[in-house]
Amino acid sequence: MPPRGRxxxxxIGVLAFLAFWVWGLIALRAMLPPxxxxxxxxxxxxxxAWGLPLIPLLKWAEGGRDRxxx
Length: 70
What we know:
This protein is an all-alpha fold. The chain has one domain. The chain is 79% helix and 0% strand. The two termini are 16 Å apart.
């Protein structure tokens, strides 16, 4: 796949992942007791951690198999 195609697929993947990530955070938060401190900690960690699962996708988008062949 050409680099532009990989980046396009990755961009769509990131948007889809973020939609499900936010939905999941909101759903999980509903199971916890109400508290401003819990909100702060939960959404702070969830908002900072969304990038970790996307690292392989972003590496693929920037290099893919072409980088290994060089």
